[in-house]
Design goal:
Elements: H1 11-27, H2 31-42, H3 47-54, H4 60-99, H5 118-131, E1 136-137, E2 143-145, H6 146-149, E3 177-179, H7 184-193, E4 198-207, E5 219-229, H8 234-249, E6 255-262, E7 265-274, E8 298-307, H9 309-314, E9 323-330, H10 331-339, H11 352-355
Parallel strand pairs: 1-4
Antiparallel strand pairs: 2-3, 4-5, 5-9, 6-7, 7-8, 8-9
Amino acid sequence: MPAAPTGPLPPQEVERARAGALAAVAAAADLDELKEVRIEHAGDRSPLALLNRRIGTLPGEQRKEAGRLVGTARREVAEALVARQQVLAAERDERMLADEAVDVTLPWVRRPVGARHPLVSLVDRIAQIFVALGYEVADGPEAEADWYNFDALNMGPHHPARAATDTFFVESVDSGVVLRTHTSPVQVRAMLTRPLPLYVICPGRTYRADELDATHTPVFSQVEGLVVDEGITMADLKGTLDHFAAAMFGEGIVTRLRPSYFPFTEPSAEVDIECFVCRGASVGDPDQPCRTCSSEGWIEWGGCGMVNPRVLGACGIDPDRWSGFAFGMGLERTLMFRHGITDMRDLIEGDVRFTLPFGMDV
């Protein structure tokens, strides 16, 4: 480092160094240039630093005035450096915000996230409910022998459901093979192949010769439940349905059974659920109408009953020792109840705009 000059310290020399430093600070166009200016005009080898070293060589009477001049100049340069750095940093940040701005209206992913079909998720949810109760999940073929679909279920050769106007036959009516009209054949197969006692649910796709409209479809899904054990009664059936309804539609929902007829159960009943919207409060109250249940307080859900002894006998089960119950519900109908869906066609058209809101669960 060169030695500091000696001799008097003219005020003009201090002013020249101060002015040069301030001009250089003002001329710095960016933070990198300002860094060079700081080293050149405020560093250890800067003109003002060298002038500051000369103060020690001055006579005592000159030191005070020289110290004041140099100190004031160095302080002004330091303040100018700080102020200029703030300005340049703000300009840099503004440029970065402009250059690196993100258009949030553009698609944020090139491959959209998919979603499970709500019927698939509903089947999984129902399976979890009944597996937790000790049931097994059973499955069977969709193209089924008519013995399993009709005869074993006490549906005689002249039953209306066996007509080609109601059932899809494979090749011909005489082929003996149909597209199953319900998942009850799976129950028959379970009674023929599984040991007793028997607790199974049978979800699956079924087929009937219906026109496609807002409330009907020729291909639809069902879930059926079957219990065969000793001492089974209608009370067991009612308790199971109450638990199932509460799991589907919320705590406190109950069911009622209305007498009906099915060839494979005796006695038989239609299953109604208490309206999960008005909870029956709209009945007889014109000021509080309910569109969900039409102010009736109840919604038809499915069918049920005690397994007909003839069905047990056809499957080789002694009806004097064993008894059981069965129930069945449409999954599309259940899903429509749960989510306020008004058109069944939305469930089968494959429009991703319908499926995506359900996400990965229901």
